[in-house]
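Quick question: what would this complex look like in 3D?
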Amino acid sequence: MYKSEKGQYLVEFLPYIKEFYGNTFVIKYGGSAMINDELKMAFSKDIALLKLVGINPIIVHGGGNEIGDTLKKLDITTKFHKGLRITDEKTMEVVVMVLAGKVNKEIVLNINRFGGRAVGLSGVDASIIKAKKLLLEDVDLGLVGDVEEVNPDILVNLSKNGYIPVVSPIGFDDAGSRYNINADTVASSIAQALQAEKLIYISDVDGVLDTENKLISEIKIKDIDKMIGSVLTGGMIPKVISAKEAIENGVKKVHIINGKKQHAILEEIFTDAGIGTQIVR
Amino acid sequence: MYKSEKGQYLVEFLPYIKEFYGNTFVIKYGGSAMINDELKMAFSKDIALLKLVGINPIIVHGGGNEIGDTLKKLDITTKFHKGLRITDEKTMEVVVMVLAGKVNKEIVLNINRFGGRAVGLSGVDASIIKAKKLLLEDVDLGLVGDVEEVNPDILVNLSKNGYIPVVSPIGFDDAGSRYNINADTVASSIAQALQAEKLIYISDVDGVLDTENKLISEIKIKDIDKMIGSVLTGGMIPKVISAKEAIENGVKKVHIINGKKQHAILEEIFTDAGIGTQIVR
Amino acid sequence: MYKSEKGQYLVEFLPYIKEFYGNTFVIKYGGSAMINDELKMAFSKDIALLKLVGINPIIVHGGGNEIGDTLKKLDITTKFHKGLRITDEKTMEVVVMVLAGKVNKEIVLNINRFGGRAVGLSGVDASIIKAKKLLLEDVDLGLVGDVEEVNPDILVNLSKNGYIPVVSPIGFDDAGSRYNINADTVASSIAQALQAEKLIYISDVDGVLDTENKLISEIKIKDIDKMIGSVLTGGMIPKVISAKEAIENGVKKVHIINGKKQHAILEEIFTDAGIGTQIVR
Amino acid sequence: MYKSEKGQYLVEFLPYIKEFYGNTFVIKYGGSAMINDELKMAFSKDIALLKLVGINPIIVHGGGNEIGDTLKKLDITTKFHKGLRITDEKTMEVVVMVLAGKVNKEIVLNINRFGGRAVGLSGVDASIIKAKKLLLEDVDLGLVGDVEEVNPDILVNLSKNGYIPVVSPIGFDDAGSRYNINADTVASSIAQALQAEKLIYISDVDGVLDTENKLISEIKIKDIDKMIGSVLTGGMIPKVISAKEAIENGVKKVHIINGKKQHAILEEIFTDAGIGTQIVR
Amino acid sequence: MYKSEKGQYLVEFLPYIKEFYGNTFVIKYGGSAMINDELKMAFSKDIALLKLVGINPIIVHGGGNEIGDTLKKLDITTKFHKGLRITDEKTMEVVVMVLAGKVNKEIVLNINRFGGRAVGLSGVDASIIKAKKLLLEDVDLGLVGDVEEVNPDILVNLSKNGYIPVVSPIGFDDAGSRYNINADTVASSIAQALQAEKLIYISDVDGVLDTENKLISEIKIKDIDKMIGSVLTGGMIPKVISAKEAIENGVKKVHIINGKKQHAILEEIFTDAGIGTQIVR
Amino acid sequence: MYKSEKGQYLVEFLPYIKEFYGNTFVIKYGGSAMINDELKMAFSKDIALLKLVGINPIIVHGGGNEIGDTLKKLDITTKFHKGLRITDEKTMEVVVMVLAGKVNKEIVLNINRFGGRAVGLSGVDASIIKAKKLLLEDVDLGLVGDVEEVNPDILVNLSKNGYIPVVSPIGFDDAGSRYNINADTVASSIAQALQAEKLIYISDVDGVLDTENKLISEIKIKDIDKMIGSVLTGGMIPKVISAKEAIENGVKKVHIINGKKQHAILEEIFTDAGIGTQIVR
C-alpha cells in the first residue's frame, strides 16, 4: 500500500505534540547555537515550530562572547573572579547594550523571519526580574546579581496572546541599579515562577558524560550530590545544581542538550530516545 | 555538522503549519479509507494531528456500503434511480441507524484513541442541516433530500472549544421528516456556511485524470464546464460541480485526493507538490 | 375583579421556576414515554420548556425494546443472565446502531421540533463515559460494562451554550472496545459528575409503592436498606440503589415518576405535592 | 390517558416563551394597577415571571395621583394647562420625592418580594434621560419636559446581569434642572432607544374601543391618522401617537391593555387572542 | 530651570494615586457638606475625580434635616428616643421619599454634572440591605432598623462598569417592611461586605479631639475602649465603634474628616499628613 | 471657608482627566529631556501619572547623541548627508545596541521606579515596524529607513493590560535587514496606526516661533505650506510636516513642547492655555 513518507514522519510526532500541548518550556539559549549562522537559523525555525504546535516557549539568552568583544573594542578592561566578570557601572552599561540591544534583537528578528512573533525583553521590562547583589565573602563583584523575585505576569500575558518572549538576563533593584545575572540562573528562576513543564539548557556539549565519556541519558536529582566532583565538573556543576533547584520547586523536567547539533531541541522533545541528558525527580 | 533527521522533517512542515493556523478544513471522508483498518487508523491519526497543529477539521462521512449491507441483512430491498437509492420510511430508519449509529461512532472512537476529542453529530442534531425533498421530474425518490439551509453554530462552538465535529449526512424538515443526503453535497454546503479555507474530498481515485490517465494537479473553475463529458465522467461530475459551487460561494480551495494512500491528506496539505487534484478560482 | 385564568396558572409556577433557575436536572428517559407517540410529543415539549425557563436538562435514554426488535429482525439471538443481555461484538454493533442511531436521533428530532436545541451524543463522543467490563463471578457478560469515569466537559459546554444534551448509554475503554451500560447507572453517574440538583427516573410505574400498593411520596436514604426485599422488589431495587449512591455523592434529590402520565415531569417539578416518589438525604 | 392538567397549562405557553426569549419589553405601569393592592401583587408576580422565562422587562412608571395627594398635604397649589401640571421648582422637588422616592421604591420592593431583582432608577441616574423644556406657544409650563436623548447603557447592563430596571420619568439638562416628563413618552423613548420588541401600556381601559364600544384588537399605524377624532379621543390620542412613533422608530409592536384585569399582561403576551389592542406596522 | 507649577502639584499626587488604584472607598456623606451649595459642588467634583483616577467610591448618604423639614411641612409630629426618631408607617413613607427621592437624586445629579456616572439606589434596590427591627428594651422604635445582611453584588457590578453608586440608608425585610437605618451603620456594613480599603466619615468636626481640643491624627482600635467617656463623647461614640467593627471585619482604614472644609476628602487621601483622624488596626 | 489648596489644584485637572480618559497619546521623547537627570525623573513621573489617570501613553524615543558617543568610543567614523547618518552594517549594529539596549532600558527603568509598568520594545519586536530603505536620488544612505507598515497589535495589547510601551525607532524588512529610522517619523506612523488622540513631540524649543520669536500657540494644517521657509526652518520643517500627515490620517492633535521645562507635558495637557504649539485640522 502506498504510504506518504512525509505524512508518516509527521504522525510520528503526534503523541509528543499531544502530550506537550499548552505546556510552557523555558529554554536557555547560548553557546555555539547562538554564534553559527546555520545553527541560528535552525534554532529560530525550531522555536517558531514549537509555538505553532501549541507549546509556549520562553527564551532566556546569554551573550558572554559578545560582551567581551564589545568591551575590548571600547578598551574597557575587566577582571574575572572564579569565572564571574567584576562589573562596574561603565561595564554594566555595555552589558545592557550588548544583551538587550545587540543579542536580544538579533534573536527576535530571526524567529520572526520564520513566522514566530517574538518579543524581546530584559528583566528590567515590566519589572520581570528583581535582583540583589551577589555577595561573596572575599571579593566585591560589583553589579553581578542574583535573582530575588520573578514577576512573570507579562511572560504569561505575551505567551497567551501568541507571542514568544525572549529575555535578556538583566535584573534591577529598587534603588535603580541594574545587575548582570547568570543566564542559567535566570532561566531556572523563570521556569520555577511559571511552574514550567520543561527547562532546557542549550549548551556546547552533548549533556552530562560519565567517566568513560559516554552520555548519561537520565539523572535523578537524589543522585546529583554524589556526582559532584566525579562526573560533574567545571561549568556543568552550577548548571546541574540550578536544574535540581528547578525540579525541587515544581519544574517537571530539565534537559541539557548540545546546541551544536541542528534541531537538537526537536529531537530531544519529539522522540523517546532523546539526544541529551534529562534530569528528573 | 550533525543534523537531526527527524527535526529536519518536522521543520519542513513549518511554513504549512504557519499558513493554515486557525483555518477550517471540511473533509468528506468515504470510500476505502473508511473500510480498510490500516487506512482508518492512519486517517484518525491525521485528523488528530491536524487539530493539534492548529487546524479545525470538520469531518462529513458517507457510508454507502454499510447501508447496503445492513438493508440486506434485514431483507429490505431497495431500488436505485441514477445511483440514488429510493428511500422509504423503513429504509430511512436503517440509514439513520447505520450512519449516525454504526459509522459515525466508529469514526469518533478511532479519532479519540489518538488523542482527538471528536464529537459525532448528524444533521438533525442542533438542527444543523435543514433539508428538502430532492425533486426529480420522472421519479419519486422518497426521503432522498437536498440541503436547504445549514445552521453551523454548533460546529463553530465545538471547533472553538477544541472538539472535532464528525457529521452524518442526514437532514430534517419542519414536518419532522428525515432525509438521506449525498455526503459530498453536505460537505460542500457546510464548507460554504463556514467559509472554510479548504474542502477536501477523500475518494478512491488519485484525483481528476486527463485523457491519458495522468493526474491533473490543478483545475480552474472557469475550465470545469468544458471538461464535463471529456475528462470528467461518472461520479466525478457531481463532485467537481459541488466543488465549483463551493468556491463560487467563498471556499478557498477544494482538493480531491486518494484515500487509498496512507496519510494522503497530510501529503496534500503539507507539501507544495501535493498528491491529488486541487480546484481553485 | 377580572382575573386571567391562564395568567393565574402561569404565576403559580413562579416560585418553582425561581427555585430551579440555572439548576441541572439529569433525566433518565425510557419505557412507555419513549414508545407511545402522544407521550413522546408531551415529553419533548416538557424538555424544551424546562430549558426555556432556565433549567439545564440532560437526557439519558434507554432503548431495550428497540434493541431486541432489531436483533430479531437480523436473526441474531442473544442470551440473558439475570436480566442482562450477554453481548458479543456483533450484538454490540447493533446496540450502538439502535441506541446512538435510531433512538437517540428520534429523541433529538422531537425535542427540536418544539424549539429545543437538542444534541445527541453517546458516551463515546468527547470521551464522556469511560467504561470497564462488568465482571460477574459466574458468567462472562461480554461487552456489558460499568461506568469507570465520567468526563462531563462537553455536557457543561453544551448546556451553557443553550443546547440540550441527549446521551446514549454506551461507554468505551482505552483498548477501543465499546460497552453496553445500564441507562439508570449512566444517568446516576452523570448526575454525580455534574453535582446535579435532580436526577429523575421516568419509569412505567407511579413510583415506589408500599405493601398496600399505595404510593410512597418520600423515602430517606437511611431507610432504603431495610426496605429492600419488602416494598422494594425486582427492577426497582437497582434503581433505588443507584438513587442512594447519587445522593451520597452530591445529587440533591432523586425522583421516580410514571412516564405513562402526560407531563408527569412538569407536575413533579412544578407542584408541591408532586406525582411520584422522591428520594432524599 | 392521565394528563397533568397543570403541566398541560404550562406547555401551552411554550411557543410564546420560545418566541420572546431574550426579548426586551418596555412596560409603562400606571393607573389602577399601581393603586389596588391585589393588582399590585399580581403585577409584581407577572414581572418577576417574565424575567425568569427569559424576557427582559423594563418598567417605566407614572404616579399622577400620588403627586397630587402629596402636594395637597403640603398645601402647594398648582395649576393645570390642558392636563399638564405647571411645575415650578418647589413642585418639582415634590415630583422627584414622590416618583423616585415613594412610588419607585414601592414597585421595586414588591417585585423583589416575588423573587425579581428590581433596581429603581430615575432618568437622572446614569444620565439616562436628557430632557428639554416642553415649549408651548401660549403658556410657560415651568419644569415640564420632553425627552431630548436617551442613554440606555445602564438599562442594558442591568438587564444583562439579571436585574429588572424600574424607571421614574424624570429628566435632567446640562444646566442642572430636572424635568417632569409624561411617563408614556418616556416609555416610548426608552423602547425606541433599546429597539424593544414590545412596548406595553398598562392603562385603565381595555384598549382602543370602536364607535360601538367594542375592543379593536389590532390597529395598523397607517390607519391611525384617520382614527383620531373618531374612535381615538382624549388621553388615548397621545398614547396612540407615541405608539406610532415607537413603531416607526424600530419597536416591533405596541400593546394597550387594561391593568384592572389581573395578569392581563400575561394573557396579552402568552395567548394568541390577547386581551387588549395591539398596534403594528 | 523652568518648572511647571501645576505639573509639579499633579505629580505630587502620583504615589497616592498609584497606591489606591483599583481600591474601594465607602464614603458616608452628611452634615454641612450636604447642605452648603459650595461644599456640595466641591464634594461632587472630588467624587468624580476619585473615580477618574482609578478609585471606586461608593457613597452612603444621610439626610436628617431634610426628613425633619418635610415631616414638619406635612404636620407629622414624631418623638425621639435617645436621638432616634420613633418611626411609624406614615413617617417611614416620608423617610423614603426624602432620602431615596429628594436627597439621593440631588447628589446623583451633582456628581453627574462634573462628569461622574452616579447611580442612586436605596437598600431596597437589588435587595442590597436586608434589615431587622432595632430592638430596645424599654421602647418600641417602630421602623428603625439595623443591618442584617448586605448583598453587595450590584455595587460591585456598577463600580466595575464605571458607575458611582449612591446609596440611601433604607433596608427591607422579607415581610415587606422598610426600615430607617443609621447611615454610619450602613456605610460601615457595606464597607465590610466589600472589604473596602477605606471607610470615610464626612462629619461636621475636624475628627476626634483630645481633652485640649487638639485633633488626634491616629487612633489604634485597641485604644478605643479606654477613650470612651473621656475624649470620645456624644455622637462620636457610635461612629468610632462602627469604625472599630469595620476594621475588625476587614476594612483597612477608617477616616473621620470635616466636611466643612472644601476638598477635605482629597487632602485626607492625597497627602501624608492628612487632615482628620484615621482609625487603624 | 477653609479650602484645601492641594485638593483645589487636583480638582482643576478634573475636566482634562475626564476628557482624555482612555485616550492614546503617542509621545516622541528626545533632546535635553532625555539627557538631564532632573528632567529624566520629571518625565518618568509624568508618564507614570498619565497612565494612572486613565491615559494610554506610548513612548517613542530618539537617541542621537548617545549613538554618536558610542561610535566615537568604538572608533567608527560615519558621514552625514543632510543631517542623516550614512549607516553601514557595522554602524547599524551600534545603533541597535545604543537605542534598544542602552537608551530604551534606561527609560523603562526610570518609569518603573515611579510605579509605571513600562515595557521596552524596538520596531523589530512583534514585527511592529516594517521598514524600507530610504531612497535618495543622489546618495546611498545605507541602512537609513522609512516606515512601510506599522503592526500595532502588541502596543494595543500591552496598553490594554496596563503596560506602557517604550519603542526604539528601528525597523526591519523581510530580507532580515534592520533600519535606523527617524524617531519623529516613527512616532507619527504609530500615532496614525493607532488613530491616537494626541501626538506629542518633546523637543528642545518652546514650539514654533513667529518672526518675532514669539510662540505660536496654534497652527492649522491648511496654513503649514505657506509657513515653510518663513517661520518654519531647519529641523522644525520635517517635524511639522509629519505632524500634518498625522492629522490628515486621523490623529486628533499634535503638540510640540519644550522638554527643557519640567512637567511641560502635564502643563500642555492639563491646562487650557498649554505651553507649546498645537497643530490642528
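Answer marked as accepted. Chain F touches chain A at residues 70, 73-75, 93, 96-102, 104-105, 108-110, 112-113, 117-122, 124-127, 154, 157, 161, 163, 170, 172, 174, 176, 178 (CB under 8 Å).
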